[in-house]
Amino acid sequence: MRHVIRDANRQILAVYAEPQPGTEPIAPDDPEVVAFATESDSEAALRALLASSDEDLIRIVEDLINVLIDQNVILLTDFPAGAQRKLLRRQGVRQKLQSMDAIHPQRGR
Of the four, 49, 57, 79, 80, which is 20 to 30 A from 41 by CA? Predict the structure, then answer.
């Protein structure tokens, strides 16, 4: 989630990663945030846009790796030992979260 400050016309003036006084929450991929960052000459705004997409991109790469492993295009053992541990750790955490969601479906992620 990102947090924005708006002017009187509801135009975004600033985007923050953390809540600030007078800000309102907004999705990082909201078209207004994207437009603000890409039309801005502000290095900070552009960096904030990239940072906000990092988490989504990590999930996409993780899912891609899992699909390639499931389809036997690559093997887990093709990765260096450190990468294997990290992938397996994330897989374990995701399985635990899925189990928790099954037990407590009303709880959001």
Answer: 57
